[in-house]
Amino acid sequence: MTEQTATDQTQTKAVRDVGVVIQESESNRPVIEAIEADNPGCTVMHTPGLVRITAPGRIVINQETVEEKVGREWETHEFQMAIVSYFGNIQEWDDDEIVIAWDH
């Protein structure tokens, strides 16, 4: 492989999207709004009963932002009741945030 070929492959390597599918409901709308606010550049697609959010590289769900949108205390474990599926890996899930990203 030539040096130019190696450079071309590095430059064309795309960032893989990650995503989460959330059940659309009145209680989940603030969570969706918080994800949109904390992840500029994410794409939100509404389908009947579901909302699919994708972003290049990673999605972060911040407890503080969700609490601002919900107007009450919110614990990250509540996110389990909202999600239908996700793609990527859950790299972090603690009391303050959830991070979905690929390991590589």
From TrEMBL:
Q: Which GO terms describe its molecular function?
A: monooxygenase activity
The entry's keywords: Monooxygenase, Oxidoreductase
Is Oxidoreductase one of the keywords?
yes
Annotated coiled-coil positions are none
Gene3D superfamilies, alphabetized: Monooxygenase component MmoB/DmpM (3.90.56.10)
Tell me one Pfam family matched here.
Answer: MmoB_DmpM
Family that this chain belongs to: Belongs to the TmoD/XamoD family.
Q: What is this protein called?
A: Monooxygenase
